[in-house]
Design brief:
The structure holds two protein chains of two kinds. Chain A is built from eleven helices and 19 strands. Chain A has three domains: about 55 residues, Molybdopterin biosynthesis moea protein, domain 2 (Alpha-Beta Complex), CATH 3.90.105; about 110 residues, Pyrimidine nucleoside phosphorylase-like, C-terminal domain (Aldehyde Oxidoreductase, domain 3, Alpha-Beta Complex), CATH 3.90.1170.30; about 150 residues, 3-Layer(aba) Sandwich (Molybdenum Cofactor Biosythetic Enzyme, Chain A), CATH 3.40.980.10. Chain A is elongated, with a radius of gyration of 27 Å. In chain A, a hairpin with a 3-residue loop joins β2 and β3. Chain A is α+β, with helices and mostly antiparallel strands. By secondary structure, chain B is of the alpha+beta class. Helices cover about 30% and strands about 15% of the residues of chain B. Classes of the chains: A alpha+beta, B alpha+beta. At the A-B interface, α3 and α4 of A face α4 of B.
């Protein structure tokens, strides 16, 4: 139960919640914290903050304060790789990455959680690469006091299929490259794919351990794949031959190598001709020519997810469509742009 | 209690089709019964412990009745015409009762739970299977005061309406100005212009009376009623079909 009292009668009372002060361009934060005992000197300060009345709270048995609610929410939301401190400021608790990795949101659970009127949680997009101690989400209760039941229901919703938020550490894997194309194999042009892919692989903490150049020949492509597997590669990237020309036989080579699952075509641009296949547990990623011409492509969307252990299949490639169109800005600002953020 | 898929299959067969409402109803009854401690409500030792109040006459109501085994004629199924997708499950032995409400949120969240399914109907059907109970339902602990005249068992009281003579059971009569009346006489009914009629083959019965001298399956009285207001006259085929 909440009781409102005039400020002049509040001397000696404890504040029921943090009182926020905003000085534009200078400061935003709690001027007074919950539990502070109001004294004479505070009255003018509180009046400057527009406070002429204060709340006195007498909680019923089935009610909780926003700070307790926020802690219940944060505990339920935070999964593997998420840390938070039970010290709500202005009723809000921030959640941080415990380690470098891929921030993953169960967007369905988050939506269900946020449908409970008394709570909110805002996060970064799912599948965002984050650094240790980076802010990834924040949660708070909406009312100052509320019934406990909806908060506990929201917590249950956040915990469905594990916690709603997590940071998945990227695996550090051995990568094999297969650069296809008669023009490169026969030294008619210089390969530029290997350095581009090596840089992307290195940036995610993995290493290119094997590199093979092969012509547009399905059997030789197949042999190169098998060779990488025998050398212990955990991930194979293939370039060239991913389009629709008669010389494009990379897919045949992948099939001939024994890939049991092959998904060709993805709902992202650049990257429509992308391919994902699996040979045992080893993913094979077919990178189309756009990987040479565009700084950021579908590979940048999929590779971190593969390294986090996610199985990428038809559904995952199809769901990239919403938000999967690169705006091709003169100066690329990825990842701070909409590309790949819709799924 | 049988597993979900078996209950859903049986419910859909009993109801006539499989629909999202069946999924919601089956799950609503499974949850409600579990929360009041009846894990096999249709079993011999539990069937008399349960009363269910359904608040809607939609597909979900049939599924709730199928899973929980309650029946209108057994007085274990009560219908409250609230138009609310909810049902209350009462354990008569322990007096514990829960009201399980289907959430509107579930409809909004269905596309998120089954994004790969096209079509609202099919999407809801799949999504309602995938959603956790906490998305699909809200639950209230409630108290239900059940009159002895609403309980299963033999009729507790019978009185005749002093206006129409109809027998009224289980204290449903109304007393107005010291006159005991049935509800239609006291308050009006859902029908109007009630008048008694005769109909074709009035003396038909499904089982032959061995004492009668008539051939089996033949009406003892084959004469047409002469009253002008009877239904089933030659030339009024549609009426006859309705009433036979």
């Amino acid at each position: 139960m909440i009781k409102t009292i005039p400020l002049e009668d509040a001397i000696g009372s404890k504040l029921a919640h943090d009182v926020t002060e905003i000085r534009p361009g200078e400061f935003k934060g709690p001027a007074f914290r919950k539990g502070h005992t109001v004294c004479n000197e505070d009255v003018c300060h509180l009046q400057r903050l527009g406070k002429n009345h204060l709340y006195l709270i007498d909680l019923e048995e089935d009610e909780i304060h926003e700070n307790e609610a926020a802690a219940i929410q944060a505990k339920a939301l935070a999964g593997n790789g998420i840390i938070w401190e039970d010290n709500p400021k202005e009723g809000k608790i921030n959640l941080y990455a415990e380690k470098d990795g891929l921030f993953v949101v169960n967007t369905t659970a988050l939506a269900a959680f946020n449908m409970v009127e008394e709570v909110m949680c805002a996060t970064l997009h799912t599948n965002t690469l984050v650094k240790k101690e980076e802010l990834v989400a924040a949660t708070r209760a909406i009312p100052l006091i509320m019934k406990r039941a909806p908060i506990e229901r929201a917590a249950a919703l956040a915990r469905q299929n594990g916690a709603a938020l997590s940071v998945q550490q990227l695996r550090h894997v051995k990568v094999g490259l297969v650069i296809t194309g008669n023009e490169i194999y026969n030294n008619l042009i210089e390969d530029r794919f290997a350095p581009v892919l090596t840089e992307k692989v290195n940036a995610l903490g993995s290493k290119v351990c094997a590199l093979k150049f092969v012509p547009d020949d399905a059997e030789m492509i197949s042999q190169a794949i098998r060779s990488h597997l025998e050398n212990g590669c955990d991930l194979i990237l293939l370039t060239g031959g991913m389009s629709v020309d008669p010389d494009d036989v990379t897919r045949q080579g992948i099939r001939r190598a024994g890939a049991y699952e092959l998904h060709y075509g993805a709902s992202a641009l650049p990257g429509a001709m992308f391919l994902v296949a699996y040979l045992g547990d080893v993913p094979l990623l077919g990178v189309p020519g756009c990987g040479l011409h565009h700084q950021i492509t579908i590979l940048d969307l999929v590779l971190p997810r593969i390294l986090s252990g996610e199985k990428i299949g038809k559904k995952e490639l199809a769901f990239l469509g919403h938000g999967g169109l690169c705006r091709d800005c003169p100066e690329c600002i990825y990842p701070n742009c909409p590309f790949g953020k819709g799924s | 209690m049988q597993d979900f898929e078996t209950l859903l299959k049986g419910s859909a067969e009993a109801h006539g089709h499989l629909c999202p409402g069946q999924v919601v109803g089956v799950r609503m009854a499974m949850l409600g019964c579990r929360l009041i401690g009846l894990n096999d409500p249709s079993s011999h030792d539990q069937i008399k412990k349960l009363i269910v109040y359904v608040e809607m006459d939609r597909c979900t109501a049939d599924a709730v009745a199928h899973v929980s085994g309650v029946k209108l004629g057994r007085r274990s199924l009560k219908f409250l015409d609230y138009g609310i997708m909810a049902a209350t499950f009462v354990n008569l032995e322990t007096d514990s009762a829960v009201r399980v409400l289907s959430t509107e949120d579930a409809r909004d969240l269905a596309p998120l739970y089954a994004p790969e399914i096209a079509g609202k109907y099919q999407q809801q059907l799949i999504a309602y299977k995938l959603m956790p109970d906490s998305v699909l339902f809200k639950v209230q602990k409630v108290q239900v005061a059940i009159s002895e005249f609403d309980l299963p068992g033999p009729t507790r009281r019978k009185v005749s309406c002093q206006r129409c003579g109809q027998m009224v059971r289980d204290s449903r009569e109304v007393v107005i100005d010291n006159h005991v009346l049935c509800k239609p006489c006291a308050k009006g009914a859902y029908y109007t212009n009630a008048r008694e009629i005769t109909w074709l083959n009035m003396n038909w019965s499904p089982v032959s009376d061995f004492r009668a001298k008539q051939p089996p399956n033949m009406p003892a009285d084959s004469e047409e009623p002469s009253a002008s207001n009877h239904l089933g006259q030659p030339g009024t085929k549609s009426h006859r079909e309705k009433l036979q």
